[in-house]
Amino acid sequence: MAFIARSSAYSIIDSPPTSSVSCDMNMEIDSTMSFKESKSIPTPACLKKLLENEAAKQAMFDLGVELVCNTSDKVYVISQDDYFGYESGGTYAELYNFCWEGSGGGFHIWNLGTGNHPVVFLGSEGERAKLGATVEDFLQVVCSLQPCIMDVIFGLPLAGGIEDETDMNKALATDMDVKETIRFVERTQRQSNEDNEDSQLEAAKIVLGTIGRPFLSIREAMEKVVTAHLSEPRFNPQPTDD
User: Fold this and answer.
1) Its domain of life (predicted)?
2) Which of 46, 54, 220, 238 lies 20 to 30 Å from 90 when distance is taken between CA atoms?
3) Residue 106: what are its φ and ψ, rounded to 5°?
4) Helix crossing, 199-211 with 135-144: angle to 10°?
5) Who's near 232: CB < 8 A, 6+ residues apart?
6) Dmax of the chain from CA atoms?
7) Residue 36: strand, helix, or coil
């Protein structure tokens, strides 16, 4: 991820810059499972469309963000282990998992209790980020920035592991070199096209077609994800003492 060197030169655009809790409704709930671990919320409409379409589910897998819910009815709260050392109480008590990425990190719906359900990320090495105001926004960004979405996430301001600065309220748009990141995504997508390695592009087309969203330009997608990450309330769980 070295290409995303943090810099104070840019603002957002140009101005100076398998979860522990399965979603399978057929699972047998262990007698030791807490009430928190079995809580659920209705599956968002866009996820239902993906879950009910085999080609779309495969496309999500090809994009590296595998759907883990096996039901189109409910999305389940994450287990304690899935917080990866961050606090799990208070405003962070209701994170509902719907996707995982290859290194074990989870994409979760953050239920703020106000009708807002942004998508957040918790990585296995302590990375954390807020990636979209809605699941639809998140999916649109993932598809538009393929195959570089994880590189982008890991480079977001203060999104690094828990050994780094932990107060997300201190994160600034100028902590990320957005222009260099855009150039990196452009180069990667161009190289993929030249090498005829377009499986992720085709997968992105299937996902966006299924949920009825258009591609964003790389610039638009970067603005959307950085804006979401820095929007209030910030996703700012703190490391526990354990």
Assistant:
1) Eukaryota
2) 46
3) -115, 145
4) 150
5) none
6) 55
7) helix
Residues 54 and 94: their CA atoms lie apart, in Å, by 28
| 66: enclosing H helix or E strand | strand 65-67
Express as a percent the part of the chain with pLDDT over 90. Answer: 71
Phi, psi of 10 (to 5 degrees): -135, 150
211, amino acid identity: I
DSSP 8-state assignment for residue 83 = G
Burial of 116 (0-12, 13-18, 19+ CB in 10 A): exposed
Structure token digits, residue 83: 């917080």
For residue range 78-88, list pLDDT tens digits in order: 999 999 999 99
Neighbours of 136 (CB within 10 A): 18
Q: What distance in Å separates the CA atoms of residue 97 and residue 2, rounded to the nearest whole number?
A: 29
Average pLDDT over residues 181-188: 96
Say how far apart CA 130 and CA 149 lie, in whole Å.
Answer: 13
For tokens 């809580």, name the residue.
39
Length of the chain: 242
Q: Where do we find the tokens 């309220």?
A: 169
Q: Does residue 68 contact residue 99 with C-beta atoms inside 8 Å?
A: yes
Q: pTM for the complete prediction? A: 0.83
